[in-house]
């Protein structure tokens, strides 16, 4: 799972965020009919391997005037428009109902809500609109459906901060997502965004949410750790400490990942060296001297057996 997807799921797996989001994005007649006491997060995903290239999902079920209903919050991955979105949504909806059939569950109507955070404004249109010059006599044979499309580029930062959504944490999350591709803009306004959560960050739940924000920024942008820590500390001292420990953890994880990658690279290079030398007619003894291995190890490599090679022989100079 990518970092954008992870932050989306962390944000919208919080029921209060999802409720706040749909209450400000769905049509008013739908908003009025939902029984929010029944609004519940569902397990699993209906995104298959093909759709995973395009978006991720978080699904909620609820009652709509007594009728079971699913609301699928879908996060569009791309930073630029994709004209095939309606076809991808059609596939997604089919997956959801197909999964219901397999699990012997009743099929439920579903409202797709797509969140897009790219720079360019986008109006993807309906599935039927993807067919140009479609004769009227053929239109009824082309499946069509409506969906809610939320384009964050259509909202100014000020509008998100002050005029839409009730929860400060949701506003912060959407502001970060909206500006994540513009590092200069994000850096300039970060303190203002985080100030929205001053009170929330005093709670344990608020700090947990802030940690996901910190992790997202550090993983996706090149904002300096010191700058991030300074920005957060002026809002919440505990948050600044959290930013520092998160950065240290990510740095250590990156180091360990780099070491593992270096070891694998060194192992592959050693195997290639031994096999290429054997192809050139060198004896096992000479190969062992060149590779700084014993003859038994050379023999195992040539026989496609896995061996333990001393760590110092596997690491590149830059990795040691």
From TrEMBL:
Protein name in UniProt: Transposase
Highest rank taxon of the organism: Bacteria
GO biological processes: DNA recombination
MF terms in GO: double-stranded DNA endonuclease activity
Residue span(s) of domain Transposase (putative) YhgA-like: 4-196
Upper classification of the organism: Bacteria, Pseudomonadati, Thermodesulfobacteriota, Desulfobacteria, Desulfobacterales
Family statement: Belongs to the Rpn/YhgA-like nuclease family.
One Pfam family here: Transposase_31
